[in-house]
Structure formats: structure tokens, C-alpha cells
Amino acid sequence: MSKNNNNVNDSENDEFKEPELKDKAIYLKVSDETRNLIDNYKEKGTTISDLVRNAVKCYDDFNSISPEIHGIIEKYKDVDESEFSFIEKALKYYGDQKNLDRDLWVRARDEMKMMLIGKTTFNQLIAAAEAPEHSLEKPWRKNVAIDLILWYNDSKPLKSLSFEEIIYTIQKVWVVTNYFHTIDVQKESEDQFHLLFRHRQNKRYGIYWLGYFTELFSSEEMPFKCEVEGQAFDESVSMTLKIGYKK
What we know:
This protein has 247 residues and is α+β, with helices and mostly antiparallel strands. Helices cover 53% and strands 14% of the residues. Helix 9 crosses helix 10.
């Protein structure tokens, strides 16, 4: 038979060859700790091949987590804590929070327009509602805004916060508590911001909060010198804040 015919037959034979199975045994020397873990699961009826398959799948799943989530894990877990121990605690915390019926508060806020209100602010609003329109100075001065700002920023000293941190804290907290349904913040320049507070009340409500925040931003306790201009409308409050210098 010619050489060419041999080549043809070889090619035909190749087409009908069974694919090579990857059934070669994998040999790996493991530590005593790993061997004890394997033996523990073998006693429960789990085969070594199942252990290897599940372990590799788990390893691949964990490494498929986004870099953002890996960053969060590394940032918040203890130095000597394993990733799985941290994830276990995080899931328990998530379950505990769900059991606090926080979704009920969100529903009440969105559907019933209810406010999360502290005792001091409640008393101030009552006094403001009963007082003549020209007698709001006292409730303006007696406010807990700085306490809330410090609370939201993990009790950092007020002077260590930037002006932007203070503004965005107000934007977050006063919307979560539902005093306003939105607060728009526009940075017009490095030292000037415009804030638009939107509510569903009336102009007198806006006048109260205009005075409240004017008193806050003009306070001697604030770490920045600030010039405030503002105006209250039927369902919104417009404020322009110009930062002079850090005290």
C-alpha cells in the first residue's frame, strides 16, 4: 500500500477515535489539618471526588465575587478573621435587620408620609405652630441638627468634617426622616452651594425650616464661616450657602 493511502487511512481512523477521558488520578499531599477534615466528611459518606468537586466549585464561586465586594470584606473584617466567618456574621446581621420590621417604616414613610421625629424637634414644631409668625427665633436656636450630623458621621469631631460632608449629611438624614421628600444639592463653585428642599406642607412649614438651617449654618459652632441667603415657598425652601473661611 502506498504511503499516501496510509495517510488517508490514518486520517479516517483519527475521526473515529474516542475522545480521551480525563480520568487520570490526581495525587496531592495534604496537611494533617486537611486530612482530618477529609476523614471527617468521609465518615459521613462523602466521597473524596465529591469533596474535591465541591471545594473547587466553592473556591471558584468565592473568587467570582466582584472586586468591590472583596474590598468591603477586606475593609471591615478583623485581621485574623476568615472571609467565611465575616460573611456568616454579615448574613446574621442582615437577618437581624430584616426582623426589625424596617420595611414597615419604609412603607409608612412612602405611603402615609409619616416622619421620624425626635422629642426635641417635636416640641419645637409644636411651639412653632402655636407661636406668632414673628416668634420662631427660640425653636430655631434650640435645634438638634449638630447632634444628628455628629451621629451620622460616627461621632467624628465637627471641626474634622468638610463642608460637603455636612451638607450631604443633611441631605441624607432629613430625607430619611421624611421632613423633606427630596433635597437637591448643587455645587455652583468651590465655595458656593445651592440647596433646594422640597416638602408637601405649606409656606409656614418652609419658613420654619429656612430659619432652622439659617441658624445652623450661621452658628458659631460650625467649623466654617458661612453666608446664607434663602427663601421659603409653598412647597420648597431655596438656600444659597457661600463659605467664607474655615474657623
